[in-house]
Amino acid sequence: MNAPIHSSESTVLIVGAGLAGYHVARQARQHGHTGPISIIGDENRPAYDRPALSKAFLNGTVNFEDLHLDDPSNPLEVTWHSGSGAVELSTEPLGVRTADGTFHAGDNVVIVTGAEAQRLPSFGRSGGAFVLRNVEDGLALRERMIEGQRIAVVGGGFLGLEAVSTFLDRGAAEITVIADEQFPGEARLGAAVGQAIRHLHEQRGVKFGPPVYAHSVTDTEDGSQVLNLTNGDAVQADVIVCAIGATPATRWLRDGELTLGPSGAILCDDFGFTGIPGVWAAGDCAQWTSQAAGIRPIGQWQEAVEQARIVAAAIMGAPPVPFQEPYFWSEQYDVMIQGAGRIAQSNEVHILDGSIEGGDLLVSYRLDGEEIGILGMNRMREIKRWRKMRTARVLASA
Amino acid sequence: MSLKVCHLSELTPGEGLRIESVSPPIAVFLTEEGTVHAIDDTCTHQDASLAAGWVEDCKVECPLHESSFCLLTGEVDQPPAKQKVRVHTVEVRGDDVLVELSQEAPNLPPGVSVS
């Protein structure tokens, strides 16, 4: 088996053309990598950024060109192979075979295939519920008539709730959210934040169903659909959107040499190393040691960028890049929700300022009295300051 | 022609002030070093107010992501923003902050237009 090659002239093969893939390539070039870099993407499109798919892209404010990750006036020096996804990883010789039969070799292979939207187990004839993961999904919902329609959104996470706020903006007649929590995000972010998020939507007329799961979609004679809930209730809707999370896009690796976790994620150390020389993984298809331990979040935009940065440095043999505090944001209506720090590990939540009804909450997350996280609604200045001060502290103690 | 946009005493060292009396809005910064700068307030990546960003080393980092804009040149250092912001000429006269707006076309983010 080949030893990993850290030379700046080696070939880097990036499998996946999303946020993590783009940033691995960009960072490798920043580190002075001069060798060939190839990026394989299964979609026949330029690499794009996803956050706007549930917001500005979904309401037509921005177009696909606006989502492109690469800068057309200063493009990355990489070879893009678009339209045929990876189907097989080979360790000897090291490389990946794509669906069209091509073998792509690399001295280092970085797997960044992302995740696929989870769907309800049972669909109606019409194909059932929409999902929102890729630009195709976004286009389908962007082109679907929403004005005057009854919408049901399954899932009370940020993706679903951002879509809710966009649908209301597009004139939906009625929106019902089916989430497994009474107050969305309550378990993860605390009761006050869950209540504040629910209030944000309820004050605009959005309805919340009972805190149960949805299990299937059935079609009715009049062309509308019925969403069936686990408590026996049913929600009638014209459009059903399923936003219940995503699973790592690693089916193609299932019978291979890599170790996959229970979710299907590629298990890696905190440098993205898979244990197989020259094979690395990052972003939503991977689970790094600190994520498996619950210390770092999973599935966040910022996490993919950070991991890409760390993997690129590791491949290049550059000094390790420290993790920053985790960070996420969500735009719902005119409210920007931002959270930072190790919120999942906190055991106390304190309201620092604002109110549940005001859409202006600022809360502190503490672990045994020490502040380890923060969340704000329309608190951009406070959140940025907190993040920068924490980063300074991390760097000072490194 | 210079416009009076704010008082020097309204500015906080290390912070920005969003000025909405001009379109598109601009941000005026007083650095810790005591210099005053004015740039377009809207990040070129997405609609976020740079006045709420983090000011350090004569740069402001967008409050939403990690792109930093140079207060002297408007240049951006890293994604997600790709384009620079305009820089406006500042003159401090007593307690008055006067700004002469750039004649360049602004690089507003997709979906944002001048009202």
TrEMBL record, chain A:
The record's listing under InterPro entries reads: FAD-oxidoreductase/Apoptosis, FAD/NAD-bd_sf, FAD/NAD-binding_dom, FAD/NAD-linked_Rdtase_dimer_sf, Reductase_C
Which parts of the sequence belong to the FAD/NAD(P)-binding domain? Answer: 11-308
Superkingdom of source: Bacteria
Where does the Reductase C-terminal domain lie?
327-393
Q: Which cofactor does it need?
A: FAD
Keyword set, alphabetical order: FAD, Flavoprotein, Oxidoreductase
Establish whether keyword Iron-sulfur is in the entry. no
Q: Which Pfam families match?
A: Pyr_redox_2 (PF07992), Reductase_C (PF14759)
The molecular function terms in GO held by this entry are:
oxidoreductase activity, acting on NAD(P)H
Can you list the GO cellular component terms from the UniProt entry? Answer: cytoplasm
Q: Which PANTHER family match?
A: APOPTOSIS-INDUCING FACTOR 1 (PTHR43557), RIESKE DOMAIN-CONTAINING PROTEIN-RELATED (PTHR43557:SF2)
Name the record gives this protein: NADPH-dependent 2,4-dienoyl-CoA reductase/sulfur reductase-like enzyme
UniProt source species:
Enteractinococcus coprophilus
Automatic annotation (TrEMBL), chain B:
Keyword Iron-sulfur among UniProt keywords? yes
Where would one find the signal peptide in this protein?
A: none
What domain of life is recorded for the organism? Bacteria
Q: Which UniProt keywords apply?
A: 2Fe-2S, Dioxygenase, Iron, Iron-sulfur, Metal-binding, Oxidoreductase
Give one GO term, molecular function aspect: dioxygenase activity
Q: Which residues form the Rieske domain?
A: 3-99
Which InterPro entries does this one have? Answer: Rieske_2Fe-2S, Rieske_2Fe-2S_sf
A Pfam family (short name) is: Rieske
Entry-linked PROSITE patterns? RIESKE
Say if the entry is tagged with keyword Isomerase.
no
- Please report the name of this protein according to its UniProt entry: 3-phenylpropionate/trans-cinnamate dioxygenase ferredoxin subunit
